[in-house]
Amino acid sequence: MIKDLFHKNRPVYSLEVFPPKKDTDVSVIYDALDQFKELHPNFISVTYGAGGTTSENTFAIASYIQNQCGIEALTHLTCAAIPDRLFLTNFLTNLYRNGIRNILGLRGDQPRGMSDEQFAARYYKHASDLIQDIKTTFPFSVAGACYPEVHQEASSLEEDIANLKIKVDTGVDFLITQLFYDNDTFFRFVDRARKAGITVPILPGLMPVTSAGQVKNIIELSGTKVPDSLMSQIKAYKDSPEDLKKAGLEFTKKQMEQLLEHGVDGIHLYSMNKVEIAKFILE
Ligand code: FAD
Fold it and tell me: Which of 168, 206, 227, 283 has the fewest CB atoms within 10 Å distance of its CB?
């Protein structure tokens, strides 16, 4: 179970993959996983489409990681995709009976095509409600998400951390952060979380910038701030994709080195199916 790794293998190194989009060759992800395996990460997490669109593939990929690669799999699951308690019990039973012992309990965002009313009427309101039921169904090692730059819907860091404390108290064993590029923001967040009585391990989440288009997506989807030092390199190399990629990877490498010097619990790399990125950073 992943929660035990923080005693035995600290710092813990993990990677994240996502199920390929519909009408894409699914073997691409299995080929990538076979190569990720050679990097010996402590665990690999698999994302879940907000409205449950990737449900079957998320399960199949997590099973492959756990049972074929012999690496701890962490399955993401979002409230927005759960219509009732039976759905949750069946999903968890499939995981548990297939040897998967780790789950990241999330609220998820409003899926495209779901009305405001439908989203507001979801069965589990917050990740903490979902995590409470996961914990009483099977003895999973449970992760939760957290936000060094504050979740977009929270009015302040204090409010967000107070809500995070409620979530952790329902049975979260460790936290993974939203991606960030400014380590000082992360250190401040951890300090505030510790002062609020949150004692579980907190894995910083890092995602190298490897293309100019990706920056726009990062800002739009997660609201993450890109520091001037990185932004100026992105601008300088806007016509040179290879140099831009190199600069983005170097930035993340330095970021990771500074975090490790500070004794962080580990590193979660948003590797997003890209073997080249995982290799460069982890090797
Ligand atoms: P919550 O913990 O429920 O928090 C959401 C908001 O509600 C916050 O503002 C919080 O302060 C507030 N809140 C929480 N609890 C309470 C409470 N009890 N009372 C009042 N307010 C409360 N999305 C996907 O669709 N699929 C994925 O696979 C996925 N993986 C992710 C992995 C990581 C590591 C991270 C950081 C995010 C991931 N997301 C994923 C995105 C995530 O679903 C969104 O960021 C979503 O908006 C919040 O999810 P949460 O679990 O943090 O929600």
Answer: 283
